[in-house]
């Protein structure tokens, strides 16, 4: 891989992030989270765009300072073109276009979902990068899918959710428990002190490798409504066990299909990616499957799981080597297939 220096910019949802990559080594990876959404229990698109607008310049400046890089050392600019919230994407896209134009360097569009998967090729993401072909369970707040990765840019979705994403299930169930947004990391933490076998919730019966997470959410909601009528303190008194039981159920749903796909396609290279891959119990089950099923597992370093610009810079570097540049007349797109 060449050792070109590339700036990556990510603004698809509620994190404004900028990273500098040299070859496949990350020199800086800066993110500004948007605390404002906590008050609303979810991301408010209009507020997200405004916060990106305020954060983007300081975040990019910080990424350059931390990497000790001057603007004129940058060979190209990579940015998230989609999928995501259109207003949020527009801020990163417009900024990337303007900077590429003023520095007179190529502009490179990046698909956010490809980036979650290709984050595995960042030098310090794993002790070893995955070998093609591999399976990647891509689980975030907006997406849940099993991807067959034949090559860097040859990916096929072999299964996906027909309704909610796994991260969305964590967040919506967290709301039922009156937890802050995003609830995924909070449930992960509370589950550590709980017993995962205390409560049982519905699991879907889906065809092939597809997922569904709306059933577990409804099952938790009805169960909680019934119990709270009998004991108003039910959630408080059982919070750790509730979180552990919900987490176990979501992970069982995710892993059953991933194991089925790995077995039927006879693939032992298995990766996880996306925000939910930060989940400690999911990481543990992957490690168990390394022992139990002989999988070579790829679990990205924590900072490359939730939305970050390092993964955007990584994809931009791969495209830069291929000479795949984007016309400056491009625009952001909320929907963007793999
Ligand atoms: O990839 P990401 O940062 O943004 C999207 O592209 O959606 O994923 C965010 C999602 C949220 O739903 C959040 O609750 C979930 O990832 N998440 C977790 C954990 N950390 C983040 N879910 C479970 N356990 C975690 N430790
Ligand atoms: Zn994401």
Automatic annotation (TrEMBL):
It catalyses: L-threonylcarbamoyladenylate + adenosine(37) in tRNA = N(6)-L-threonylcarbamoyladenosine(37) in tRNA + AMP + H(+). Its EC number is 2.3.1.234. InterPro entries: ATPase_NBD, Gcp-like_dom, KAE1/TsaD, Peptidase_M22_CS, TsaD. It is an enzyme of class 2 (transferase). Its cofactor is Fe(2+). It is found in: Cytoplasm. Substrate binds at residues 138-142, 171, 184, 188, 279. The keyword rRNA processing does not apply. Residues 26-313 form the Gcp-like domain. Its main location: cytoplasm. It comes from the Bacteria. GO terms for molecular function: iron ion binding; tRNA N(6)-L-threonylcarbamoyladenine synthase activity. GO terms for biological process: tRNA threonylcarbamoyladenosine modification. Binds 1 Fe(2+) ion per subunit. Keywords: Acyltransferase, Cytoplasm, Iron, Metal-binding, Transferase, tRNA processing. CDD domains: ASKHA_NBD_TsaD_bac (cd24133). HAMAP family: TsaD. Belongs to the KAE1 / TsaD family. Required for the formation of a threonylcarbamoyl group on adenosine at position 37 (t(6)A37) in tRNAs that read codons beginning with adenine. Is involved in the transfer of the threonylcarbamoyl moiety of threonylcarbamoyl-AMP (TC-AMP) to the N6 group of A37, together with TsaE and TsaB. TsaD likely plays a direct catalytic role in this reaction. NCBIfam families: gcp_kae1, T6A_TsaD_YgjD. This is tRNA N6-adenosine threonylcarbamoyltransferase. It comes from Chryseobacterium elymi. The gene is tsaD.
